[in-house]
């Protein structure tokens, strides 16, 4: 098969994506249910076996310039992974980057449709391994299985396809050739012009621990499809999902006749600090980063030879003003706070509630009753340990536990965090969310990100102050998500205007099966690029447009 | 009139531009001929009178936070200008930037069509003052009148319209609202979503001396139409064209009911160094710069809170391998080297010619004969002083003269530069191009930009070496333009490939009325963003996409 064959084979899927990014209606190319009715009776077991076959082995992926191997993963589930990967060090970067660049000319010459065909085929192959990937995501990130399958598999594939669709549309804004004919005295002046899409150079993708695929794939595929080579530097604690990804990329590139080193894995020993020297190499022209604000800002300020796309941290907020569905409000927020133990970059941290309470369909609720209502919903949702662990997953690293243990000091505990023993993985570290009531004046506490299962119920003077604190905290600390509950159109209007001004997406009165911490590919933007939490979004034109340049030639005809 | 009225009024012009940026065929919305048959019998005289009315006066434009006035222009024609402008200093930036931001919310609320209508109306009003602008450009930049009318007026308007068209298309990639309907057990999940285009903040436009309008307008209008406020910091030697621009922007904004401080003029005293503190202000989110490489790089590396679009300097090259029209080759290059005394960022600096000479329609020509042919064409083109000055214009500043006077030392003079006394402006400094033959090994000379009427005929071992030197010099020093003359398809292919790899647009065998230093709006990209001479291009998707963000809200329906 060639890239253009694959382009034809995946044309319908691409067309669906292209239509969806224009309408921003519902679209999904990869079924999100891991049910055997969708994926077949043996898919789950086969995927699990494929995952388990990696354990204790050396992953068969070659990295130019690598030196020995590393084995750095420590599963939040306590499962010994012990997979070895080629180790990249600063000393190997010359060789790695030279190898990465080598295939770029042929990759450019392949043309737009070939590159889109190859990348769509990669997604298709990744989809065939989605259960294996789900296991890899689960046991590195600590996500529960269904979430790992969805966020780490099906939804990540949708996000990757979305990035490819945007890039395809962007590259096609320019004709491959044009005739320019200028009226002139006598004959018109005629010129033939050619326009070629050319990648920028080497793209670096820096993965994170919590969402190794979902957060890495949009940048990886946006860069690859636009003609760049991609070096993937995974988080040392979540290598396997990206090793599989790189493996599949290299397999498909090779089949299509391209240099497999167009996509490489650069695994490191923790403490090697490989990202900094890699990010500042002159060959590196694009960087996609997901992780902490400090290093994200360092990249933005220091890797100035590259276009830098960052998703960092924020202080996500929900303003609670009033509701006509108090129970549904509590249940909806409970799910958000419980999912993956609040370890999503989109989990709500701050719940702004008036000290005087709110109006609801159940009558007035005091400040304490609002907190108690949410706490009660969390309690019910997580009452059964065996079911709770399938929502909570495991705590990704010990720093989360440290923050969680310190957080009760900040105010009055509304709901204590509870340790749960995982029925299947007794070594897993599982915790339920902690809710702490805190005064509005303690902005030095809730104005900073407290990553993990910690949320603050912030006691404000009223909704006006809630909105003002929302503005202040998001302006200073950024936010990936925001929500409002209100029955008043005036309040909703004010909150919408505030959200526009501080640059964060707003979810209004979520009381059903949509949650403030979730974004749907093709329809919801993830992040905005308009506040300090992220300088880019999945996916818009700006996310793809600067990943390539158009080089023209012209001549008389 | 409102913005939407103007949107309707200028719809045809916009539609023409939108079609052209997709086809990249010929389009122009603003006639380039200053002929009275096009613009009317009195237009030229009226425009000159309007320009002259400014001389010795205080320009009636208000700048918040300004303190006193400055008068900094020194015409290359020796004409005393003595126009006073409000002086902006670092102490006034708080007030200036607060005032700039004040109108942004209303400007965003106006919506896409209103902003496009307002900016198109600004172009229309600038077009009505095109002769006044042409005079202002002529007497500040030193361009001759016809060039100032075209490059500084009609073509600049086309480039501005092109930027508006790209921005309009980009903003319209996202629907204003959408209904998202996800299939689910029982009823589908339905959500209403709204998407709002929001500007990034304050945009800073840093103008240059040589093309105050052509190089400033694309960024100015791209930023304004996408919802940003714009602070225009002109070059101290070329303020008037941008003062008129800002004046017209403020006039139209006011008529449409918007805050005129959405566009402000920040004129400075030379030596104030206003650009640095301004560029690093947190309110500034977009910067467009045209000028020297050193400051451009400083901006790229230090104004990391902003998206920075730079056009800097390069070493533009033409490779001469062979030709079937030697006279036309010489005449075409002669025009390029003579126009505006080579003071264009697109003027060819390096002519790579094999030491063994080339094949032509007139038989073999030795290295010296190629140089002599071009020199002879320049001599003829500029033989008549009165006609010569209408091509050459004036030398923009004394630094150009210093470089010109030093350049003969670098090699063997093929054509001496000649001083011409301008018949109408005896104080004008006018010089013809200098041609210096130089050896290929002197890359430390021709590998750097020597801005002004200095070009090098570089003696190479053959076309292979010419192409290799072209690669090396453009990779290291960048280029805005490149050309090749060859009758061999193989050589043309090799040159095209080299141009793609080093990231510069290639003009092939130009022998007629198209010149390597000229780019046509809507069809030719100006700069590529793919080599060190510029990190952006006029205009592509990447030039507009990051000037705004899309902020969404969502709710169940």
TrEMBL record, chains A, B:
GO terms for molecular function: L-glutamate gamma-semialdehyde dehydrogenase activity. GO terms for cellular component: cytoplasmic side of plasma membrane. The keyword Ribosomal protein does not apply. Keywords: NAD, Oxidoreductase. The keyword 4Fe-4S does not apply. GO terms for biological process: L-proline catabolic process to L-glutamate. It comes from the Bacteria. Residues 83-498 form the Aldehyde dehydrogenase domain. InterPro entries: Ald_DH/histidinol_DH (IPR016161), Ald_DH_C (IPR016163), Ald_DH_N (IPR016162), Aldehyde_DH_dom (IPR015590), PaaN_2 (IPR011975), Proline_metab_enzyme (IPR050485). This is Phenylacetic acid degradation protein paaN.
């Amino acid at each position: 098969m060639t890239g253009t064959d694959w382009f034809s084979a995946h044309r319908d899927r691409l067309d669906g994506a292209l239509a969806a990014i224009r309408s921003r209606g519902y679209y999904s190319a990869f079924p999100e249910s891991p049910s055997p009715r969708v994926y077949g009776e043996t898919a789950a077991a086969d995927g699990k076996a494929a995952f388990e076959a990696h354990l204790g082995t050396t992953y068969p992926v070659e990295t130019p310039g690598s030196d020995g191997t590393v084995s750095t993963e420590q599963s939040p589930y306590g499962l010994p992974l012990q997979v070895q990967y080629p180790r990249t060090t600063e000393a190997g970067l010359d060789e790695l980057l030279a190898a990465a660049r080598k295939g770029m000319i042929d990759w450019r010459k392949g043309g737009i449709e070939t590159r889109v065909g190859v990348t769509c085929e990669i997604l298709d192959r990744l989809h065939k391994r989605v259960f294996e990937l789900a296991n890899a995501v689960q046991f590195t990130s600590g996500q529960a299985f269904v979430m790992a399958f969805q966020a780490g598999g099906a939804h990540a594939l949708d996000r990757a396809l979305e990035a490819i669709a945007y890039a395809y549309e962007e590259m096609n804004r320019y004709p491959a050739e044009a005739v320019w004919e200028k009226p002139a005295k006598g004959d018109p002046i005629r010129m033939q012009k050619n326009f070629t899409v050319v990648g920028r150079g080497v793209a670096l993708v820096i993965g994170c621990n919590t969402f190794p695929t979902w957060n890495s794939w949009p940048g990886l595929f946006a860069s690859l499809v636009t003609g760049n080579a991609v070096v993937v530097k995974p988080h040392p604690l979540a290598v396997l999902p990206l090793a599989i990804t790189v493996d599949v990329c290299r397999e498909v590139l090779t089949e299509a006749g391209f240099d497999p080193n167009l996509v490489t894995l650069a695994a490191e020993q923790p403490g090697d600090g490989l990202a900094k020297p890699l990010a500042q190499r002159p060959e590196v022209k694009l960087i996609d980063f997901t992780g902490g604000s400090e290093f994200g800002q360092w990249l933005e300020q220091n890797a100035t030879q590259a276009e830098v796309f960052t998703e960092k941290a924020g202080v996500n907020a929900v303003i609670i003003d009033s509701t006509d569905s108090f129970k549904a409000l509590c249940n909806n927020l409970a799910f958000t706070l419980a999912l993956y133990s609040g370890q999503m970059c989109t989990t709500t941290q701050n719940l702004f509630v008036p000290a005087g309470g709110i109006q609801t369909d159940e009558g007035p609720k005091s400040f304490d009753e609002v907190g108690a209502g949410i706490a009660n919903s969390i309690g019910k949702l997580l009452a059964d340990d065996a079911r709770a662990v399938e929502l909570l997953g495991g705590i990704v690293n010990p720093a989360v536990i440290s923050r969680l243990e310190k957080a009760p000091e900040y105010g009055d505990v509304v709901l204590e965090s509870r340790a749960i023993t995982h029925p299947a993985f007794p070594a897993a570290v599982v915790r339920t969310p902690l809710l702490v009531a805190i005064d509005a004046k303690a902005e030095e506490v809730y104005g900073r990100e407290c990553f993990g299962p910690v949320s603050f119920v912030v006691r404000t003077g009223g909704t006006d102050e809630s909105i003002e604190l929302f503005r202040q905290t998001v302006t200073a600390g950024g936010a990936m998500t925001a929500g409002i509950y209100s029955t008043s159109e005036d309040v909703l209007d004010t909150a919408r205007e505030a959200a526009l001004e501080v640059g964060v997406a707003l979810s209004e009165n979520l009381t059903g099966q949509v949650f403030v911490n979730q974004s749907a590919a093709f329809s919801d933007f993830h992040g905005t690029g308009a506040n300090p939490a992220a300088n880019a979004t999945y996916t818009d034109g700006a996310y793809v447009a600067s990943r390539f340049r158009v080089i023209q030639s012209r001549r008389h005809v």
